[in-house]
Amino acid sequence: MTRIPRNSGRITACSMLAAALGSLSTPAIISSTGILGFMANETIAQSASSETRAKAATLRLMSKPVTLDVQDQPLEDILNYIVDVTGAELEPIYLDSLASTGMDPSTLLTLRVTNVAAISVLERVLKKTERIESIGEEYTWQFTDIGTIECGPKSVLNENARIELYDIADLIMAVPDFDNAPDFNISSSGGGGGGGGGGSSPFSGSSGDVDIESSAERSTRIITLIESSVEPDQWATAGGTGASLNVYGTSLVINAPDYIHRQIVGYDFWPARLHSVRNTPNGQSIRIKPDPSMRTKP
Length: 298
What we know:
It is a single chain. By secondary structure, the chain is α+β, with helices and mostly antiparallel strands. It has one domain (about 1-175, about 215-295). The chain has helices at about 15-20, 50-60, 75-85, 120-135, 155, 170, 215-230, 260-265; strands at about 1-5, 65-75, 90, 110-115, 140-145, 150-155, 160-165, 185, 205, 245-250, 250-255, 275-280, 285-290. It has a four-stranded antiparallel sheet with strand order 1-7-11-10. A hairpin with a 2-residue loop joins strand 12 (about 275-280) and strand 13 (about 285-290). Helix 3 packs antiparallel against helix 4. Mean pLDDT is about 75; it is low at about 1-45.
């Protein structure tokens, strides 16, 4: 499955799904997005858009290692600290007079981390806030279209959706596997010496017809895998408001917010050496590793 447009050597849904699905014979959890594919060593192609460059720059700032030891400190102060240390721009979604859904900036948190990437600290802060506030919402982060990071309830992040086209032609093309060839026995091939009698055929066993899964069936299995592995509750087919998926020819048309696209295809501008994949209740997600170049020199 290939995201359009894509440069060669970058995250592709094809490489990710191929690794996760194999021959599509077993339902598997999508493995690396965050998450479809493998990341190239380079950071950004020279032809990358200004939006991509802005996102890459923000993510690099958020890879800076952070040490934090706080007890009963307001959420707002902790997020402001992350901004001060990294220089990245965060847009927290707070509950206020204009927003009926959001995080309480005064929520008190206790947290201790040492030399952890700021983006991972942000995820931990959001998860702790989610558990403390317990408003029935899940909190996460995503990029805006100008490269900043907004964070807060998924229901609010869902309002900033975009449409992406994923080409799955290479995944739905079925290659026959002829694993039922007949047996060959040379001793059954007939007599040697003179007579004209015809011996029995050296082949035994029937090859039969090769059962090939149709493209439509393979497409359905890929769709089922994605919707069951990436934010299962957010898809329209499950009654969610976060994402919808349609098929156009050999492509999947997915309308979803950035945090869902991230789990499907990841970020094609982030080096493989600076990310890892971890399992979550909603599938798998990318963990950003600290960038050694961002470490403070003694």
